[in-house]
Amino acid sequence: MFAADVYIERRRRLKEQIQSGLILFLGNEESPMNYPDNQYPFRQDSSFLYFFGLDCPSLAAIIDVDRDKEVIFGDDLTVDDIIWTGPQPVLSERSETAGISETAGLEILQSALEQTVQQGRDIHFLSQYRARNTLKIAELLDIPPSSVHEHVSETLIRAVVAQRSIKSEQEISEIENALDISYEMQTAAMKMSKPGIYERQIAGAMEGIVLSLGGRLSFPTIFSIHGETLHNHSHGNLMKAGDIAVNDSGAETSLGYASDITRTVPVSGKFTQRQKEIYTIVLDAQEQAIGAVKPGVEFRNIHRLACTVLASGLKGLGLIKGDIDEAVNAGAHTLFFQCGLGHMMGLDVHDMEGLGEDYVGYTDTIRRNPGFGWRSLRLAKELEAGFVITVEPGIYFIPELIKRWKAENKNSQYINYDMVKKYENFGGVRIEDDVLVTENGYRVLGKKIPKTIDEVEEMSSG
Prior knowledge:
- By secondary structure, the chain is α+β, with helices and mostly antiparallel strands.
- The protein folds into 2 domains: 4-164, Creatinase/prolidase N-terminal domain (Creatine Amidinohydrolase, Chain A, domain 1), CATH 3.40.350; 169-461, Creatine Amidinohydrolase (Alpha-Beta Complex).
- It is built from 16 helices and 17 strands.
- The strands form 6 sheets. A 5-stranded mixed beta sheet has the order 6-5-4-1-7. A 3-stranded antiparallel beta sheet has the order 9-10-12. The chain has a 3-stranded antiparallel beta sheet with strand order 13-16-17.
- A hairpin with a 2-residue loop joins strand 2 (32-35) and strand 3.
- Helix 1 (4-17) packs across helix 7 (154-165).
- The mean pLDDT is 96.
């Protein structure tokens, strides 16, 4: 945890935004894999972590704005529990570390909420992404589970998103701690990738590194020679000479802060000429996009810049034809780049998206483009100093998508399908870094992980 005054200040700022009523935060519970005593590793709700810092299951908290009162609800372990868990601090001791002096058992929570309702005061709570917590809120507030989403407080969501979006120096330091682990993960994967090695051997080694350094994976590792599958969590392929592997992976520190890095690795230690050409286009797009990061710039415009650079490079290889701006406006580039350029990052690797992606990445005036490819952009709004974002362009040759577009003759005035067919089995290339928006520009966070062709080849062949 951070020092108690960090959490006290965070709650104070939240109360300034939510000027009346009661704010309810539910922590997460243990989640069984296949029977009650065999559980997934516990992960606390990120907003609960942000405002209260307590990383243990079955807690709830209220902030009574009208009465300037804060209470954490939970039950201390029984002797029967301690047999299995070992001794743990009691709730009152834990709560003091978050700057809260008042605690109560979970059985008190419902009566406290009922009293608030009887008083005609508002109860604010966030969107729920776990079914168990949705059911719990339904029970606590005596509303049907199917209508819980109708009672979510948009005022609270907007206040939490605004506050969590701006990272403090302590938070940035934690993200860089996670990036230190990413450095070890990525460089180990480059060194280990050889013909005759299964993807799972690399993925397993990276997870071992994370655990040995006191962290956990921030999301299921994507390590695959089929990089054209954007979120490919399968690790069953045997790597062969001439393959390239996309390594999109990240770590999470003990305080919950994430990293998210992608590199594309030549399995044989050297890229082929064709692989170098595609890789160079993606790297150019990433570097130009990062260079455009600064406060006041809308990220959707940086996304468009990256799309234009990608399309221009593909035109140089004969895959795209015609006017580049017109081709991008028509969405021709989305045959090769089907996703968004990046997302917010922090306590969640896709930061705060459990609260609603449009609240995090868009505004009342900056709306999501519904077009294919464009609609997958998670972050579009104006950047602010203190944001931490990912920048991750890619080029992906998806055979099923190519066949469909060709059959429909889609964007044929801009796409050279005869040339594209020669790349159908290429796979994909993605390059990603984590970037802090500073007062005057940007800073790429973490130790420099090999990224240029020469750097990657040197690490991979060494």
